[in-house]
Amino acid sequence: MTKRIFITATNTDIGKTYTTKLLLREFASRGIRVGVIKPIETGVVDDFAPDGSELLECVKELNKEFKDLCVKDIVPITYELPAAPFVSSNNAKLNLQQLDKTVAKLEELCDVLIIEGAGGLYVPIDEDMMMVDLIKHFGASALLVTHCSLGCINDTLLSEKVLEYKKIKHAVAFNCRENDESFSTVSEPYFLKTQFDVLKVDKNIDTICDVLYNL
After folding, report:
1. Structure confidence by residue, pLDDT tens digits, 15-63
2. What's the number of domains the chain is made of?
3. If you placed Cys at 15, which of 45, 100, 123, 175 could pair as Cys (CB 3.0 to 4.6 Å)?
4. For residue 106, what are the domain limits?
5. Dihedral sign, Cα of residue 212, residue 14, residue 166, residue 4
6. Is residue 149 a contact partner of residue 175, using CB atoms and an 8 Å limit?
7. Catalytic residue annotation
8. How far apart are CA 119 and CA 116, in angstroms?
9. CA torsion sign, 86 to 89 to 93 to 98?
10. Residue 114 scores a pLDDT above 90
């Protein structure tokens, strides 16, 4: 049975693709066959999917069974407008059957399938589904990638409450960037005081993998 891990975030441009690639490399270093899918990508112009292209290049290095795949094989649904899928698709109904078929094909090639979402948990896909509902549909555990700038306490706790409400097994990882020097003084003290596991993408990817694999 392939392990499914869904990568989500507190917002867009938080570092999902960056984190996904680190996870792929860490799992592969352990001798695990890795795979990846980004079910929906917006902002795709002239058939160029930026995130999907990065992910495909990475996974091809790590799993030879992906060597003959193209971007469309791991990014089955794309839209040109860089917006929520609900808007980009003019509220087209999500084709879950298409996604399920893609997942099934990819799972023949891997033992861990990392699923990268689009935006945050409450990004609308169509009238009936938000991004968080896609996690439930796939029966996946989740990694919530959050930021380290001012406001991360609120953003992190709100998103985690959604995962808890939906009864989704999850872990949280902080993607701290060069301009986030204030994290240790303005936000991290709260997390440490409340015994919140502060796992950082750039420093604790091995521990993050351990946690996700055992969820």
Report:
1. 999 999 999 999 999 999 999 999 999 999 999 999 999 999 999 999 9
2. 1
3. 175
4. 3-213
5. negative
6. no
7. 38
8. 9
9. negative
10. yes
Record the tokens describing residue 45, joined without a space.
């112009």
Q: What is the CATH number of the domain that holds 139?
A: 3.40.50.300
Average confidence (pLDDT) over 64-70 = 98
Please write the tens of the pLDDT for every residue from 136-171: 999 999 999 999 999 999 999 999 999 999 999 999
Q: Alpha carbon of 155 to those of 127, 142, 174, 187: distances in Å?
A: 24, 16, 12, 11
Question: CB 21: neighbour CB atoms within 10 A?
Answer: 20
Residues whose CB is less than 8 angstroms from the CB of residue 188 and which lie 6 or more positions away in sequence, other chains included: 198
**pLDDT at residue 1 is higher than 90:** no
Smallest CA-to-CA distance from 26 within 164, 199, 183 is with 199
